[in-house]
Predict the structure.
Amino acid sequence: DLLHASSSTNVLKVLGNSGDEVIATGFNDSATKKTVDGIAYSIYTHTDANTDSNAEFWIQKGVTLIGAQRGFVINGESAGDNSGYSVSNAGDVNGDGLDDLIVGAGRANLNGKSKAGKSYIVFGKQDADTIELSAIAAGKGGFVINGESAKDYSGHSVSSAGDVNGDGLDDLIVGTREAKSYIVFGKQDTNTIELSIIAVGTSTGGFVISGESMRNHARFSVSSAGDVNGDGLDDLIIGADSAGKSYVVFGKQDSAAIDLSVIVAGKNTIGFVIKGESRHDYSGYSVSSAGDVNGDGLDDLIIGANSANPSGKIKAGKSYVVFGKQGTDPIELSAIVAGTGGFVINGESAKDYSGYSVSSAGDVNGDGLDDLIVGAYLAAPSGKSQAGKSYVVFGKKDNTNAIELSAIAVGTGGFVINGELADDKSGYSVSNAGDVNGDGLDDLIVGAYLADPSGKLQAGKSYVVFGKKDNTSVIELSAIAAGTGGFVIKGESANDYSGYSVSSAGDVNGDGLDDLIVGAYGANPNGKSHAGKSYVIFGKTDTDAIYLSKLGDESKYTIDYLGDKNANTLTGTTKNEIFVAGAGNDTLIGNGGMDVFNAGVGNDDIVINASNITALEQVGVGNRARVDGGGGIDTLKLQGAGLTLDLTKISDRRIQDIEVIDITGSGNNTLKLNLDDLLHASSSTNILKVLGNSGDKVDAAGFSGPTTEKTVDGVIYNAYTHSDTNAELWLQKGVVLEGAWRGFFIDGESNGGDSGYSVSSAGDVNGDGLDDLMISAIYANSNAGESYIVFGKQDNTVINLSAIAAGKGGFVVNGESANDYSGHSVSNAGDVNGDGLDDLIVGAYLATPSGKSQAGKSYVVFGKKDNTNAIELSAIAAGGTGGFVINGESMGDFSGHSVSNAGDVNGDGLDDLIIGTYGAGKSYVVFGKQDNIAINLSDIVAGTGGFVINGESAHDESAHDYSGYSVSSAGDVNGDGLDDLIVGARKANPSGKLNAGKSYVVFGKQDNTAINLSDIVAGTGGFVINGELAGDESGYSVSSAGDVNGDGLDDLIVGAREANPSGKLNAGKSYVVFGKQDNTDAIELSAIVAGTGGFVINGELAGDESGYSVSSAGDVNGDGLDDLIVGAREANPSGKLNAGKSYVVFGKQDNTDAIELSAIVAGTGGFVINGELAGDESGYSVSSAGDV
């Protein structure tokens, strides 16, 4: 209209005075003022205007600009009802594809029952006609839920319950003040629900939940909990603040009553209790689902305790995030404070009452993790008493450290939203708003029910804050009111208290933008005092203020294809269209454009083409493209060939409730996704099925397998799992998985065996051309120990060591005697006897040869290809044909504590061995040989069959270096054609630095004379590597690194698990020392840190103990440079305590800059391997596996 008003200008001036209004959609205040002919104007520009048009709207000062007021009003039924006291999105209760609403009226009277309360379900709709709750009560456009008894105040708290019974329809939860809550199952008719019938327990319409006692107030707050235990049914959370408890009730399909006292008693299958930290904290005053904050695939919870006193700050308040779990053991919030099972959010200042309202915020910053919002309605930002604050806390999966809202206030881990004016009490109610403006980020709504818009005392305001990816700046609600970063919703009349309750409404009108609902329980519709009103505001892309007094403009978009309860096929065109399918097993065919698909209940197919995919990927405000499968098993189908559906480019808000993706199309298609995409695809399952055929592929980073085959409805799937969660990706057989972590699991044989204590490549033991593996279980068979040889294989099926013990796919090596601990150290031995097969060495450091207690033994087991019969080390010790034994020298030497292939040290063509005996401070090199005669290490000392390497310091505990604690082949460090050795002495004290540790490189040689490490220190026959700092224990683990820098010389890696990089206590360091042939000068690890002669690898986090185990990894990425693997057994991936991590560090030629393992985690210069479960200590032992 503006552009066509004049042919000579794109500026339209409007004259008027106070009281005049201009209603104009999409214009924003430019903050520019101009005066023409003595008239002062405010200048507005349009968001859609072409920059060449320079369209402007000049409005005389005093005239009010009002944008389109799209939405509708819901008027209370009777005076005194206080409808709108609680409001919520109800989900899709009737399965028609449009989201519904629930409005609580806790003071309503019915059939003589004073204040029994009512709750009204208002079905979604597109028009803006006012809703009268009296019509809803009559079954027009929804249905009413009548309270059970007088003074129940049912509807005091209301919420969507999700799909509790798994029927595809969303359910409801209604709280009362009389220690009862009611679950009402979704339904498609409009018949009245009587809670008195639900309470009987024989109804099919829901069930009642009874509190522990009348004083517990198991009513004050109720909410859907999401799927906390991962069983596919939505769960519930009920707060009882006077008892300081919250109760999680698992979803179920029957109507039997629930008694919360049974949950408290434990040993049940129906839920668990969350017990408050301190008596008068009022934990449970507000409760909510938190979404999936830590990204583990289970929904989490948030519980507010507004009167808690963190760090002595009286009533600053706390909020507790409780991670989802599958058991029913009680949760103590004191354990959450300690970082077990969740984390605490501590209030900022005394008497803020943070946690008075809490909610999931959705994914506000677009990182794939759900965020949180915490209201502190009595906070005083910038000295404005009781203006209130709301804090957005970003989801996190790396730790369970406490969150301080004072840190959030300065932009660390989130951002703060400061109230506008004193006494507004912003943050009294807070909620996720869904994606109101269509930018793919979740938005927020904050209620300030005592605000005074336009001088209307306590009419109330609500503020919509748009999601944003940064956390660098504070949000001022005064800026939101001015149209920057969101918009304000202004109450209608004085004392309405609008914003007392606020919520996302879901997508009520089906246009692809999420809508809002605001309750005003003090309003007087149609002259009915305090009957209350609720207002539905349709989603919009502009930031114009909403005036609830003017609400009623029609939806901007209309439904193009509307289904019914039957099975419909709805076929679109290339235009932007809206599909609402209703009930039935429907087919929705987009045919291109920015389409909105609302499939409703039923097993539906949604068909999209390249144009639809482009629309879904579009970034920015106003993208309405959306796919919502609704209830049932819904399939998203690709139409066409050569398509790529890249879910990593599509906001998780845009595709929801999809259980199957069919990429078959008419040719070869590709699906790309990550873990977050899978977890957000469906609200009912963490399994995503993908249909397709040969030529179709899926690119899914982080998934491994397949672990099993699954057959559903005649379709055979390969099932892939993810290490970070219990999610599964099922691909129809024939579909190729790319980007997955390929490999297989090896499960231990028996309880307490501790398989994986030591692992190593075994070389090619059976001569089939594939490298084999060696895994020990030192506590098996009364601590005699077992070692398992697993033959290389090309499939990904799980290996169980019980099968290996039975001779299937490998063989077992059984320890000789109880308490020998055979397998404490295992290694490929190379080809010791020259028969062309790789051999093995097994250390048993507590064995007792010839009565010498704990002198230790090591066993060489020859490779074999003719059978998989078990090897008995007792037979080896007796001189059998399968290998030979190496007996320790003296009592308490612990020979075999560390063992390794030594390469060919003496150049005779047979591989040699090195055995560490840290109890004696010696290491022994045993030359390869072809017979089975036992070796006594005392003969090696005498120069027969090898040579001894004597430690540097005296043999007593006060001065003992522990040389030989770790030993390894070093490869050919000096390029002389003989393999060299490395010996770790973790307790050595170089230059007086106590326990800094040393490592000694001993050059290969052909004679049998003894080596004294004091000579190595002096530069004769090798060189020493001196530890950096006291207490580092460098040399705890040592290994050849292969040729990391590609200079033709083998390099070394030395682990120092106790080192403290950048002050991170015991984060650990690993040092890569480059091979050198020009000198035998000592290497100082402090020089390596400075980039001279190698580089350092710094641990990620305090306590990780990176460098506990180190090894060459071979050439993992195929770039011609050898890579490294570093174990950190105490690391806590995704908050899983001591699950452990292992880091693969790629070889590099270009520089000697330090490597930060935090960079490896981020995918720079290598990759991380995260442990599976808490306490696993993965990375305790690491090794190259060869080419399995």
Remarks:
- Confidence is low (pLDDT under 50) at residues 955-959.
- The chain has four domains: 1-67, 71-553, 561-738, 951-1187.
